[in-house]
Design brief:
Blueprint: E1 2-12, E2 17-28, E3 33-37, H1 44-51, E4 59-64, E5 67-68, H2 74-84, E6 85-89, H3 100-105, H4 115-128, H5 144-156, E7 162-166, H6 174-189, E8 193-197, H7 201-204, E9 209-214, E10 217-219
Parallel strand pairs: 3-8, 3-9, 6-7, 7-8
Antiparallel strand pairs: 1-2, 1-4, 4-5, 9-10
Helix pairs in contact: 4-5, 5-6
GO cellular component, one term: membrane protein complex
Protein name: ABC transporter ATP-binding protein
Organism: Siphonobacter curvatus
């Protein structure tokens, strides 16, 4: 499903070179729920961004569903991200001036769908995360846990095969964090492949497999 071969990421300035990822080789199989752990600054988010095609490796190869992504032109790469991948961020990234329903619809604006189709899919996604009674609310009217559920609904509205979650419970208390992880587990049971960055050992233990990073290197 996702395959990284000899992936490295180097950040360079005029005076400093930082090796963020060092020779990463890993495969995430279809239907897996994988967690990524490691100390702050070890490259977790960088790895997730590369897996999600939001950033490019300095060297190495990435395959998504058997296709080498470096062969894609920018337009095809954007289409692949929009159709195959859903993203959940720690900071929610909701637009405060838009209603919950409108926020969830955003990924569908880049698809060839009607306004009615977008609305129906957004409503279905919000029902899956238990927010059908908050569709007309605005982000500032929601709790942190509710905002994260909106973010999950936005991630799944396009029915992606892969969900990438960067610290999805990091800003939440333990009770709400458990609720969010239960939603992710249900999405995984329904067929989604999930990769989650987390700092929480208890959350990681509820996934199928743990990948550990230290100083940009995968720890066996």
């Amino acid at each position: 499903m996702i395959k990284l071969q000899n992936v490295e990421k180097v950040y360079r300035t005029s005076s400093v070179e930082t090796l963020a990822l060092n020779n990463i080789n890993l495969t995430v199989n279809r239907g897996e729920f994988v967690s990524i752990m490691g100390p702050s600054g070890c490259g977790k988010s960088t790895l997730l961004n590369i897996m999600g095609l939001l950033d490019e490796p300095s060297s190495g190869h990435i395959e998504i569903d058997g296709s080498r992504v470096e062969r894609y032109q920018d337009k095809a790469l954007a289409q692949l991200r929009n159709q195959k991948l859903g993203f959940i961020f720690q900071s929610f990234h909701l637009i405060n001036d838009l209603s919950v329903l409108d926020n969830v619809e955003i990924p569908l604006l880049y698809r060839d769908s009607t306004a009615k189709q977008r609305r129906e899919l957004a409503q279905q996604a919000l029902e899956k995360v238990g927010l059908s009674n908050r569709m007309k609310h605005f982000p500032k009217q929601l709790s942190g846990g509710q905002k994260q559920r909106v973010a999950i609904a936005r991630a799944i509205v396009g029915q992606p095969e892969i969900i990438l979650a960067d610290e999805p419970t990091g800003n939440l208390d333990s009770a709400m964090g458990n609720e969010i992880l239960s939603i992710l587990q249900k999405l995984n049971e329904d067929g989604a492949t999930i990769v989650m960055v987390t700092h929480d050992d208890a959350m990681a233990k509820r996934t199928h497999r743990l990948i550990r990073l230290f100083d940009g290197t995968q720890v066996q």
